[in-house]
Amino acid sequence: MSCEGSGRGGGARASANMAASLDDDLELNNQDYYSLLNVRKEATLEELKASYRRLCMLYHPDKHRDIELKSQAEQLFNQVRQAYEVLSDEHSRAIYDIFGKKGLEVEGWEVVERKRTPAEIREEYERLQREREERRLQQRTNPKGTISVGVDATDLFDRYDEDFEEMPGGGFPHIEINRMHISQSIEAPLTNSDTAVLSGSLSTHNGNGGGNINMTIRRVTSAKGWGEVEFGAGDILGPLIGLKMFRNITPRSFLTAQGGLQFSPRGLRPSCSLMTARHLDQNTMGYLQWRWGPNSAMTTSLVRDTKSSHFTLALQFGVPHSYLMMSYHYKFQDDDQTKVKGSVKTGWFGTVLEYGAERKISRHSVLSATVSVGVPQGVTLKLKLARSSQTYLFPIHLTDQLLPSAVFYATVGPLLAYMAIHRLVVIPYTKAQKEEELELQRKSSATDIAKKKQEAESAVLLMQESVRRIIEVEESKMGLIILNAWYGKFVSETSHKQEKAKVIDVTVPLQCLVKDSKLILTESSKAGLPGFYDPCVGEEKSLKLLYQFRGVMHQVISADTDPLRIPKQSHRIEPDS
């Protein structure tokens, strides 16, 4: 590794070119230097030196006379030395923490100038990421779409059976689609600051429908604001010309202004609106909006969004509607990003109570169901599926009255359907998809894993003499002896019979890390430790140890990335167990 040429010109250009490929290759080409040295990410220079000296004594080529062992020791010694050189240098360590090992392999160290501090390096990386996103935007149209299908199912609950007994098919409720709406938009980046947006929509309701098409040109004028001009045409309302502007007033507040002219058959219909918002604290926003036109109104709202909840309070005075609305979402801290929500809205139109749930069902898909109960609206079940940038809505109107049976079925029906579909369709699909991805990952990393396995086996051979001395010292004082240690994926008694354990014996590598009757492993993947490798790429792994301390047996199982410190009283195996 060479640090020469760090002050050469053209660093920004080299950085920009490299940033486009760094993130794609980072995981495959990166070696965890912290795990190799068995130190914390926040390790001090003294901690790095202590670990480096220990591993140098173990792997120094001059300690081995056998030609093959000497060659293997030289390779491992060079890896340890490279890890120490990178992490002990503040500049190269900052680059490694951000870019990984690949960032250190750039010829001439042209990623950033040598004189920059770690904080400046991180700022440079964030700037390169923004530029990369801009280049990505120029290469895609970012399509967005919404499809809404309204279903009239009031015949399920509101029908009069005696009126249909003599009609053909009268025994079956009549369910029909009474409205549909389709909208789509695409973006076409023109420059880094200009974007064209083309959008259109079609709607039908009880046999009558219409559509419109819009063209918007948006320009980012500065880091504080942007503006856009909109042109539209439709078969009902006529041509439209609009202007919208956004501006950050202060770091904690912004203003949006919008105006438009609608050329309708009834004449020119102008409209405008102003909205200002301010951060009241880290999680709370306050909004104030004024609209003038066909639906004039003044609206104020308070929105508080935290990691575990989302709360909204809104009040509107206007023509034709005035209302008070309050909603609350609770966010579960699980992998499926589950949310439960409820809201109440009351005004001149009546009162509506809504409650529902939302859950992520796949990597790109979110499913939600909401029950709306209102006077005089009745009961409606709203189903929503959001997949990437496409949204599918299915509002199902069940009854115009407040019927307990409709509320019950609207609540329980989707829940039972989801549980059945999730168990019979979603779980098998995601499991098959995950297995396919794991297989692809294994194939792509097979060569690298074979190399790591060979290096681990060589390291174990080089450790034998040191381990023998460590065991002699520990036995003399009834210290810490690693009896058995296994690393990988273990199979429980409840697992499938055809599933096999994928583990490797790491007794020798762990005994080699014992010092003064203590073994300390840091918070990182143990696959990077000397003498270790990954026996099951992409799968959850753990470390299982059986050890003896002061003549007493101990046992512990630790997750792959969890820190571990032994011996501990809680690991002790009682004689009667």
Write the layout of secondary structure elements.
Elements: H1 11-29, H2 33-37, H3 45-59, H4 67-88, H5 90-99, H6 101-104, H7 118-138, E1 144-152, H8 161-164, E2 176-189, E3 194-205, E4 208-222, E5 225-234, E6 240-250, E7 253-264, E8 267-279, E9 284-292, E10 297-305, E11 309-318, E12 323-331, E13 339-347, E14 350-360, E15 365-375, E16 378-387, E17 390-399, H9 404-444, H10 446-476, E18 480-489, E19 502-505, H11 507-512, E20 519-521, E21 542-549, E22 552-559, E23 564-566
Helix pairs in contact: 1-7, 3-4, 4-5, 4-10, 5-7
Number of helices: 11
Main β-sheet: number of strands, strand sense, barrel status? 17 strands, mixed, barrel
Helix-strand makeup class: alpha+beta
Low-confidence stretches: 1-30, 106-112
Overall 3D form: elongated
Topology, number of strands = 23
Which radius of gyration do the C-alpha atoms yield? Answer: 33 Å
Helix content: 25-40%
Averaging pLDDT over every residue, what do you get? 83
Beta content comes to 35-45%
Distance between the termini: 54 Å
Function: Required for mitochondrial inner membrane organization. Seems to function through its association with the MICOS complex and the mitochondrial outer membrane sorting assembly machinery (SAM) complex.
Keywords: Acetylation, Chaperone, Coiled coil, Membrane, Mitochondrion, Mitochondrion outer membrane, Phosphoprotein
GO biological process, one term: cristae formation
Protein name: DnaJ homolog subfamily C member 11
